Every structure is written in structure tokens, then in C-alpha cells.
């Protein structure tokens, strides 16, 4: 190491950690924004052509003009433009509004649909200044090798990565199926090397288990087909004698709101499940479908934690507002903002925060989260010891 790092392992709750990628949710895919309108004054210097703009870009033009005349080196206009796009969105100070180049855009959509390729099967996120393992996926290399929740990701193939973001580390861990990767973890202040062969990651969006007359439905993300999958599960419940449903949304960073609506339609019949507020448009109300509420009278427990975000918070909040479920666990993350996706030229994408979400009873989700009816913590130590006090509580209710 180039500098001495003091590893401070703390006893923390998994619910306070933020799952990568997962704290990102997509409300809708909207095609067509002309990014040239934002850079009308700047583009002529890059040889891209110009357009009228309502904003005066004179100061930016001045900087580029001075660089062009004075910089002792070659100016890569393409790189300058990409940097300008990223800088423009970053200057808004909203971590959810981002510009993604074609490669980043492709990775984003792959993550959203669970197409993570070959890797070792860990979910990671930032906690206490380091990127840590939040969860190892069943039947995947990391769990088999002995990697534990709470481990700090220090090196990948000998390269120090502890200062990088979880997205950057994730890219380094992934690779061709069957190739080896060595990940160095820090646990209790000690470095531990784990060498594994990358495998195609089994990462379904939803699945169901049964414990007697209780159906445990786990939703890891809201994908295109997630709502249909869960509706299919619900149609089996009567034949299986199900009397209670536990809906596990822990670690669910969101996804498509349409999938969340499909799920909520099983409990809420044709009523408001979401209020959307925007400075550019009047408030709008979204309602569930009618005639699909197979579980409207079913006893339901929803499990949440600090990594439950976005579309999954919409579900928890709506079920709580209507008294359709008891919420158990830890306060959710509090990502109650709408992102629209605008497909740009050359495969790039602009993800823009366009509105905020409120529950049917007008509770703001953003930065507030959903507070559980019954608070129960689950620590990294609990996970690694295969203890689940939150699930135990849900089963007892």
C-alpha cells in the first residue's frame, strides 16, 4: 500500500447500507431529447455545429477558447464534450441525475435487468467510508469461498480498489466465465485473499418459498416481468392453503414502477398507490389495476431495511397507508424521486430527476423513507451466522 490505512470495522446494521445499482430506479423510458440545445454556444468550438439556446454559454466558450489558444498539448474534442456533459449534470448536485456514455448506459440497463454477466455473486455498497460486501448470493462463488457480509473490498487481482466506487469495483470483479479473480478482503483489520472462478450469476428478480401455510415472496428488484411472476405465484396460493404472505423487499433498490403497480394490484383494487409532484407539471395520481386483488384480504407482512429503495418504497408505503400490511424491519433508504431516461446520440443516456413521490396519504418518500410498524434490526453478524431476527418476527405475527 502506498499509505497506511487504518481499518475500522464497526458493528453495523445491514439496513443502513446502500446496495449498488440498486438504489437506482427507472420510472419510465422516454426517447428523444436533443442535447445540442443545451450546448448550442459550446458546440461550434468542437466542430459539432450550433443551435439556438436560451442559456448564455459565453463563460464556457471563454474557457474553451483560452484552452484552444494556450494549452500546450492536443485537445480531444470528443473527450472534452463527454466531460462537459458529465460536468453539467454533476453541477446540479443531484446524485440521481447523471449522464452516461454508451458503455455506462449499456452497463446500467444490464444491471437493471439482472444481466450482470459473470462474476462472483456479491452485492456491495458504501458503508463507513469503504465499499463493503452487503450480501453474498446463494450458490455463487463468493459464498462458497467464505466471503462474508461486512467484508471491506480492498484489492482485485492485487490492485488496490478500496478508494474506488462500488460501480468501479464491480466492473473489475466481473469478467469472462471460467476466468479466475482474486479479491482481497479486510475483515477485523486482517487481509484475506479469496481466489475464485467467475460464474454466470443466478440473479432472478422474484421467487417464492413456503413455510407451512405462509408464502414468503422475495423480490430482489422490479424488472419487466416481476409483476407477472408474482401474480403467477398468487394464483397458486389458494391451492397451497396459504393463510399469510411475507413480502421480502430487503435490499431491493427498485426498478420499473409499472412492475410495482402490478404487485400492488394484488392487494389494492383500483385505488391510488402513488402521488407524483413536479415543479414543471401539476400533481399526478397513479392507480392500481382493477379486478386483480387476489390478496386484498390476505394477512401480509412486508420486510424492509435501509437498502429498500425507490419502487420498493412505493410498495411498502402504499400497503402501509391502506392498512394492507404490517411493515417490519428498519427504516427504508428514502429515494422518492422520479428518473426519466432520455436516449441520446451514440448510445448515451441522460437520467434525469423529474419529480418526487408521495404515498397515497401524501407522505413524502424522498429522504424520509418508510418507517416500519415493528422495528427489528439485522446486523452483518446476524447474516453471517445465518440468523434472521426480522424474518423470525414476521413469521411470529
Overview in brief:
This protein has 397 residues and is of the alpha/beta class.
Protein described:
This protein is α/β, with parallel strands linked by helices and 397 residues long. Helix content is 24%, strand content 26%. The chain has 10 helices and 20 strands. It has helices at 58-70, 77-90, 102-112, 141-145, 166-173, 226-237, 257-264, 311-321, 380-384, 389-396, and strands at residues 28-31, 98-100, 118-119, 122-127, 130-136, 152-156, 159-160, 180-187, 190-197, 199-200, 206-211, 214-219, 244-248, 272-277, 284-287, 299-304, 326-329, 337-343, 349-358, 374-375. Strands 1, 2, 14, 15, 18 and 19 form a 6-stranded mixed sheet that branches. A 6-stranded mixed sheet has the order 11-12-13-16-17-20, sandwiched between helices. Strands 7-6-8-9 form a 4-stranded antiparallel sheet. Helix 8 links the parallel strand 16 (299-304) and strand 17. It starts with 27 loop residues before the first strand and ends with a helix.
Distance between the termini: 50 Å
Note poorly predicted spans. Answer: 1-52
Our estimate of the beta-strand percent is 25-35%
Query: How would you sum up the major sheet?
Result: 6 strands, mixed
**What is the N-to-C succession of helices and strands?**
EHHEHEEEHEEHEEEEEHEHEEEHEEEEHH
Helix content: 10-25%
Could you tell me the radius of gyration in angstroms?
A: 23 Å
Return the average pLDDT rounded to an integer.
84
Give the CA-based shape: globular
Computed structural class: alpha/beta
Based on DSSP secondary structure assignment, what is the total number of beta strands?
Answer: 20
Number of helices: 10
